[in-house]
UniProtKB/TrEMBL annotation:
Signal peptide: none
All residue ranges annotated as the FAD-binding FR-type domain in the record: 152-262
Species this protein is from: Vibrio amylolyticus
Function: Is involved in NO detoxification in an aerobic process, termed nitric oxide dioxygenase (NOD) reaction that utilizes O(2) and NAD(P)H to convert NO to nitrate, which protects the bacterium from various noxious nitrogen compounds. Therefore, plays a central role in the inducible response to nitrosative stress.
SUPFAM superfamilies for this protein: Ferredoxin reductase-like, C-terminal NADP-linked domain, Globin-like, Riboflavin synthase domain-like
Pfam families: FAD_binding_6, Globin, NAD_binding_1
GO molecular function, one term: oxygen carrier activity
UniProt cofactor(s): heme b; FAD
The enzyme's E.C. designation: 1.14.12.17
Protein name per Swiss-Prot or TrEMBL: Flavohemoprotein
NCBIfam families referenced in this protein's UniProt entry, alphabetically: PRK13289.1 (NF009805)
Segments forming domain Globin: 1-138
InterPro entries: Cbr1-like_FAD-bd_dom (IPR008333), FAD-bd_FR_type (IPR017927), Flavoprot_Pyr_Nucl_cyt_Rdtase (IPR001709), FNR_nucleotide-bd (IPR039261), Globin (IPR000971), Globin-like_sf (IPR009050), Globin/Proto (IPR012292), OxRdtase_FAD/NAD-bd (IPR001433)
């Protein structure tokens, strides 16, 4: 059980963690995958190769150590991580494996400082946090199992439609093989899809935003082709584009995610770039159904050929008399170059609107800075990062 002495000892090791940096998590992952290679099925190996997951895990460990006396500060992070874990079908036994390798990593990298007392404190701290996640994830699994259209573990779906949305993005519609209903979801959430790319050694699970409103019948995702499909870069997206066709079957995990539109009787501004348009599509359709009046949509991408859902979005904008502004880096659009909010600031509900962002991290960092410069408070800025989380 975690006690005050454990807390004090863990906090005393913060300088040690900061000195080790992401090398700590690199060592941890290398150790775990070497000894327990079976867990590769539940990890995004692309993020391992790029180093993004290692950085994200290190930041999470450091944040836990710094806030171990005030776990309320980590509530949103715990929810975000628990939601993501359920889309990988993480189970309690996985926490035992992770815990073993985390403690052994600390021992191997800091042998002199890793005394019996430090080991006891970090073990207690890890077990405490692991139980927090196990409990929350258990709640989520049960809720989804008992809900109308819900299920647990993986469920088999068949591809019933495949459609190009732009030069880089293709949509896939999945209908359950058993013909039963599917679980409803909030606009902005994602599903986990499990495939085994040709020539791959392990199954790969990826999360993709649902790009249409909830309908109880099927799910649609819209996938950008990334990289070239080799050396892990774009491994799954290229497999979906090139190998998955109508009639093929895939395994899906229930919708999850903590980024979604919530009605607050306030004006809404949706801001996206590139494939970040996908969760926005579900939001726009939902806002249309609710009769929402004060909606602004801002989108940026390289050019018209890469602009997904042009007709679908334009129809919704026109029917509802909403505002839409578009930026292209190349070619004709109302605005050219990077998105600059000062050009449209006078038309935005800066004083009371809720702002939902999705796109590349660099893009969102720029937009957050611009919004803050326009006196939009952080509690009204909501965002989704594709892949390991990054704090903006």
């Amino acid at each position: 059980m975690l006690n005050e002495q454990h807390i004090n000892i863990v906090k005393s090791t913060i300088p040690l963690l900061e000195q080790a940096g992401p090398a700590l998590t690199e060592h941890f992952y290398a150790r775990m995958f070497r000894i327990n290679p079976e867990v590769k099925d539940i990890f995004n190996m692309t993020n391992q190769h790029t180093g993004r997951q290692g950085v994200a895990l290190f930041e999470a460990i450091a944040a836990y150590a710094k806030n171990i006396e005030n776990l309320a500060a980590l509530t949103s992070a715990v929810e975000r991580i628990a939601q993501k874990h359920t889309s990988f079908n993480i189970q309690p036994e996985h926490y035992q494996i992770v815990g073993t390798h985390l403690i052994e990593t600390l021992r191997e990298l800091a042998a002199d400082a890793f005394t019996t007392e430090v080991e006891e404190a970090w073990t207690a701290a890890y077990l405490f946090l692991a139980q927090v996640f196990i409990d929350r994830e258990g709640e989520l699994y049960l809720q989804r199992k008992l809900a109308v259209g819900g299920w647990e573990n993986a469920r088999e779906f068949v591809v019933t439609d495949k459609q190009a949305e732009s030069s880089l993005v293709t949509s896939f519609t999945f209908t359950p093989v058993d013909g039963a209903e599917v679980l409803d979801y909030q606009p902005g959430q994602y599903i986990g899809i499990e495939v085994k790319p040709e020539g791959g050694q392990y199954n790969e699970i990826r999360q993709y935003s649902l790009s249409q409103k909830s309908n109880g019948k099927n799910y649609r995702i819209s996938v950008k082709r990334e990289g070239f499909g080799s050396d892990y870069q774009g491994l799954v997206s290229n497999h979906l584009h090139d190998a998955i066709e109508v009639g093929d079957r895939v395994s899906l995990y229930a919708p999850a995610g903590d980024f979604f539109y919530t009605e607050k009787q306030k004006p809404v501004v949706l801001i996206s770039a590139g494939v970040g348009i996908t969760p926005v599509q579900a939001m726009l359709q939902t806002l249309h159904d609710s009769g929402k009046e004060n909606v602004s949509y801002l989108h940026a991408c390289n050019n018209r050929e890469q602009h997904s859902f042009i007709d679908e979005t334009s129809t919704l904008i026109s029917i509802n008399n909403w505002q839409q502004k578009v930026w292209y880096m190349e070619g004709d659009a109302e605005f050219s170059g990077a998105m600059n909010l000062t050009a449209v600031a006078s038309t935005l509900p800066l004083g009371d609107g809720d702002f939902y962002l999705c796109g590349p991290v660099v893009f969102m960092e720029s937009i957050v800075k611009q919004l803050e410069a326009l006196n939009v408070s952080r509690d009204r800025i909501h965002y989704e990062v594709f892949g390991p989380h990054a704090n903006l």
